[in-house]
Amino acid sequence: MDNLEITHMIIDDDFNGEESVTTDFTHNHKDYSITFKKSDLEVVNTWLFEEETSLPANLSENMIEFLREEVKKNI
Questions:
Q1: Torsion 71-14-34-42 (CA) sign
Q2: How many Cβ atoms sit within 10 Å of the Cβ of residue 20?
Q3: Into how many domains does the chain fold?
Q4: Full domain range(s) for residue 16
Q5: 21-25-30 Cα angle (round to 5)
Q6: pLDDT tens digits, 52-71
Q7: Closest by alpha carbon to 8, among 24, 20, 19?
Q8: For residues 24-55, b (16+ Cβ closer than 10 Å) or e, as one string?
């Protein structure tokens, strides 16, 4: 996917009683984070970080699927 770079990935063994994978990435010079359930890679939440705040991010299905596939490759 153009202009998308994964910068960090964390596997959390005890997020709300379930394992999760959080992936930080940049897209079009903006910083984002997406968290998936590790078991089925269902999206838990998405965030856009701007200046000193974070906002829920509205990611396209194509971007989510691309990130899901990248997570699969790395876990």
A1: positive
A2: 20
A3: 1
A4: 4-73
A5: 140
A6: 999 999 999 999 999 999 99
A7: 24
A8: bbebeeeebbbbbebeebeeeebbbeeeeeee
What is the per-residue pLDDT for 13?
A: 81
Q: What is the rounded (10 degree) CA torsion for 27, 30, 21, 67?
A: -10
Can you say whether residue 28 is alpha, beta or left, with left for phi > 0 and alpha for psi between -120 and 50 degrees?
left
DSSP 6-61: EEEEEEEEEETTEEEEEEEEEETTEEEEEEEETTT--EEEEEEEETTEEEE----H
Secondary structure element (H or E) that encloses residue 73, with its range: helix 61-74
Q: Map tokens 């009683």 to a residue.
A: 17
- pTM equals 0.90
Amino acid (one-letter) located at 17 = G
Nearest to 68 by CA among 18, 15, 25, 17: 25
